[in-house]
C-alpha cells in the first residue's frame, strides 16, 4: 500500500486504544504520520462528530496524508459522507477494508485468494451502490454497470469455491494414520505463537539462522508483524516420545469482519479437529484485555475436538506479583494456565510435559514371534507410536507400546500378534 496515513478511533466512553489498528495499518504498508481519537457517541452521518471531521480534514492537509484509517466499521452512508468531507483524493479505509487488503496481499492458495476476493466484493458492493445512482446506471446499460459486474463476479466466485475440493481433512487423516498427533497453536496476532513454534519444533533452530532445507516449507517468522502470512505452518516435533505435527495458525484479531470468517476456514478446521490446542495469550496485556481475548478465543474454539491448554506468554515483561495477579483474575476463564516466556525459554519444558499428558493416549503390551514378521511389526511400531520397551525371550518378543488409540488398535489387529495385554 505504501501510503502516508492518519489512524483514527472513536469510543463511546473509554480511552481509545490504538495499538492494534496501528499494527494493522503498518502491516498493510502504511506510514503512520498522525493519530486522532475521540470519546463520544457515534455520529449516524459521519461516524465522528462534525467538529472532529473538520479537525481530521485539517490534519490531512497539514501532514500530507494520503489515507485515513478508521478503527471501526463504517456504514456505506458514513463512508460516503466522511470521504466527501476529506480533501480530494484522500483514501479512506475502515477496519474491515484494511483487513481485507492485508488478506488479499498475503493469500497464496487458490481457495484463500477466492475467499478474500469474495469478501472484498461483498464489502464494496453496498458502498459502490451508495456512491452512484444504481437505478440510473442500470437504466443506461444494465449488464454493463459496475454493480452488475460485481454481482456477476460474486456469483462466479461462489460457484468456483463450491467446486474446489477441500483436501484438508484427507490430509489430517493421513497424518494420523502415520502416527502423528496433531497440535494446533492458536491465539491473537503477536501473542508469540510463531516464536513458540520455533521453541517446540525439531527441525528449527530458535534463531532460525541456518538455511532451511529445500524440502521443508519456509517457517512462520517471529517478527512483530500482524498477518505475516495467511497460511498455516506445520512442523514436526517429538515430545516425550510422541511424534507431533505442530501447526501455527493465522492469528485471531478483534472484531474480525463477518465476510472474512470463511477466509479463516482452513485455519479453524485445523484448530477444531486437532488433538490438542495450545492457546497463546499475551500476559503483558492489561487484565481486562486478557479476559476479553480469552472469552473471544474460547468462543472461536468452541467445538474443538481436543483439550485446550492456555499459555500466558511474555511473562518476562511482568513481575512475579503482576503475573500472580493476572492469573488470579482469569481463573474463572482458565484455571490451569501455564506462564512462559518464549523468547527466554522459561517453562517450555513444563509446557512440553503438559502437552504429552493432554494427548489422547493408549497403552498396550504385545507378544509377537521373534521372527522377520515380528521384527517387521516392531519396526512399524517405532515409526507410528512410542515403543517404551522391547524384550526378547527365546522365540518371542514383548513390546510395550504407547500412542494414539487408533494407532495402538492398528498394532493390536496385526496378524502377527500372539497375545495382547492391556496395561
Secondary structure: elements and pairs:
Layout lengths: L3 E8 L7 H9 L3 E9 L10 H14 L3 E4 L5 H10 L5 E4 H12 L3 H22 L2 H8 L4 H18 L4 H10 L3 E7 L5 H8 L32 E7 L2 E7 L16 H8 L3 E7 L4 H15 L5 E7 L6 H10 L8 E2 L8 H11 L3 E8 L2 H13 L1 E8 L2 E8 L1 H8 L6 E4 L1
Parallel strand pairs: 1-2, 1-3, 3-4, 5-7, 5-8, 8-9, 9-10
Antiparallel strand pairs: 6-7, 11-13, 11-14, 12-13
Helix pairs in contact: 1-4, 3-5, 4-5, 5-7
What does this structure look like?
The protein has 423 residues and is an alpha/beta fold. The chain folds into four domains: 97 residues, Rossmann fold (3-Layer(aba) Sandwich), CATH 3.40.50.11060; 55 residues; 191 residues, Rossmann fold (3-Layer(aba) Sandwich), CATH 3.40.50.300; 61 residues, ACT domain (Alpha-Beta Plaits), CATH 3.30.70. The chain contains 15 helices and 14 strands. A six-stranded mixed sheet has the order 6-7-5-8-9-10, with helices on both faces. A four-stranded parallel sheet has the order 2-1-3-4, sandwiched between helices. The longest helix is centred in the N-terminal third of the chain and has 22 residues. The chain is elongated. About 8% of the residues have low confidence.
Task: Identify the notable features of this structure and list them briefly.
423 residues; elongated; Rossmann fold; alpha/beta; single chain; four-stranded parallel β-sheet; six-stranded mixed β-sheet; 42% helix; 15 helices; 4 domains
How would you briefly describe this protein structure?
The protein has 423 residues and is α/β, with parallel strands linked by helices. The chain has 15 helices and 14 strands.
Amino acid at each position: 500500500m505504501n501510503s502516508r496515513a492518519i489512524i483514527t478511533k472513536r469510543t463511546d466512553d473509554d480511552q481509545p486504544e490504538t495499538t492494534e489498528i496501528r499494527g494493522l495499518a503498518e502491516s498493510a504498508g502504511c506510514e503512520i504520520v498522525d493519530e486522532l481519537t475521540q470519546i463520544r457517541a457515534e455520529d449516524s452521518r459521519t461516524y465522528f462528530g462534525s467538529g472532529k471531521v473538520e479537525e481530521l480534514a485539517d490534519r490531512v492537509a497539514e501532514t500530507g496524508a494520503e489515507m485515513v484509517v478508521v478503527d471501526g466499521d463504517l456504514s456505506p452512508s458514513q463512508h460516503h459522507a466522511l470521504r466527501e468531507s476529506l480533501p480530494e483524493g484522500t483514501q479512506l479505509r475502515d477496519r474491515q477494508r484494511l483487513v481485507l487488503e492485508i488478506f488479499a496481499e498475503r493469500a497464496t492458495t487458490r481457495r484463500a485468494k477466492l475467499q478474500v476476493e469474495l469478501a472484498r466484493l461483498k464489502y464494496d458492493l453496498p458502498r459502490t451502490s451508495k456512491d452512484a445512482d444504481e437505478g440510473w446506471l442500470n437504466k443506461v446499460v444494465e449488464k454493463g454497470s459496475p454493480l452488475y459486474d460485481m454481482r456477476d463476479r460474486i456469483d462466479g466466485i461462489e460457484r468456483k469455491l463450491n467446486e474446489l475440493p477441500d483436501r484438508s481433512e484427507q490430509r489430517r487423516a493421513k497424518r494420523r494414520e502415520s502416527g502423528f498427533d496433531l497440535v494446533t497453536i492458536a491465539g491473537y496476532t503477536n501473542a508469540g505463537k510463531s516464536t513458540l513454534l520455533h521453541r517446540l519444533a525439531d527441525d528449527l533452530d530458535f534463531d532460525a539462522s541456518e538455511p532451511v532445507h529445500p524440502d521443508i516449507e519456509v517457517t512462520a517468522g517471529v517478527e512483530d508483524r500482524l498477518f505475516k502470512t495467511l497460511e498455516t505452518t506445520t512442523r514436526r516435533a517429538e515430545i516425550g516420545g510422541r511424534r507431533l505435527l505442530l501447526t501455527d495458525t493465522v492469528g485471531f484479531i478483534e472484531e474480525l469482519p463477518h465476510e472474512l470468517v470463511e477466509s479463516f476456514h482452513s485455519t479453524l478446521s485445523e484448530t477444531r479437529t486437532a488433538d490438542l490446542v495450545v492457546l497463546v495469550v499475551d500476559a503483558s496485556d492489561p487484565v481486562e484485555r486478557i479476559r476479553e481475548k480469552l472469552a473471544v478465543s474460547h468462543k472461536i474454539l468452541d467445538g474443538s475436538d481436543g483439550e485446550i491448554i492456555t499459555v500466558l506468554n511474555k511473562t518476562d515483561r511482568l513481575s512475579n506479583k503482576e503475573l500472580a495477579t493476572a492469573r488470579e483474575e482469569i481463573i474463572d476463564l482458565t484455571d490451569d494456565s501455564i506462564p512462559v516466556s518464549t523468547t527466554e525459554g522459561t517453562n517450555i519444558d513444563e509446557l512440553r510435559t503438559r502437552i504429552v499428558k493432554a494427548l489422547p493416549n493408549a497403552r498396550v503390551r504385545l507378544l509377537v514371534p521373534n521372527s522377520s514378521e515380528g521384527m517387521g511389526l516392531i519396526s512399524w511400531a517405532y515409526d507410528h507410536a512410542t515403543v517404551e520397551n522391547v524384550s526378547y525371550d527365546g522365540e518371542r518378543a514383548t513390546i510395550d507400546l504407547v500412542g494414539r488409540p487408533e494407532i495402538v488398535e492398528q498394532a493390536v489387529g496385526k496378524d502377527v500378534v500372539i497375545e495382547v495385554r492391556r496395561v
